[in-house]
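Section 5: illustrative case.
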């Protein structure tokens, strides 16, 4: 599951975790949103699903209130250890730039299919029920929004 992740990185040059898919001994699943200062500032949404962090790049600040929809482009899976990564990915490496934790907390899935993910986030900023819906526009294109309570 992490083959694509490993192919894109030279772990002798980056401090990103190599990681392997692994089951957590935690009772709760996690999410993290990382502010990524790469070529363009964006936010990486990562949800713990199937022993990895399923990941989406969100070009604008994540939606904290209902009614705001954001584009989310699915990217390669990341190891669970990536949830704790903060630092600078060196120039010349995939995703070069500064990575900071924007929000982190628990992830409670309600429904996970190939086209829709319904879930609850309980972080410092992101609290409530959220949806990721796959669109028909482009490979890996999803909409990310908060549901009305």
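Designed sequence:
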């Amino acid at each position: 599951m992490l083959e694509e992740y490993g192919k894109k990185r030279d772990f002798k040059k980056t401090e990103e975790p190599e990681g392997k898919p692994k089951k957590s001994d935690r009772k709760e699943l996690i999410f993290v949103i990382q502010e990524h200062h790469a070529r363009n500032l964006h936010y990486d949404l990562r949800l713990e699903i199937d022993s990895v962090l399923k990941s989406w790049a969100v070009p604008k600040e994540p939606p904290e209130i209902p009614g705001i929809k954001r584009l989310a482009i699915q990217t390669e899976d990341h190891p669970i250890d990536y949830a704790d990564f903060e630092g600078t990915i060196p120039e010349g490496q995939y995703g070069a730039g500064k990575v900071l934790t924007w929000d982190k907390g628990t992830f409670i899935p309600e429904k996970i299919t190939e086209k829709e993910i319904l879930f609850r986030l309980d972080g410092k900023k992101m609290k409530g029920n959220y949806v990721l819906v796959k669109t028909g526009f482009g490979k890996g294109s999803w909409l990310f929004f908060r549901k009305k309570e």
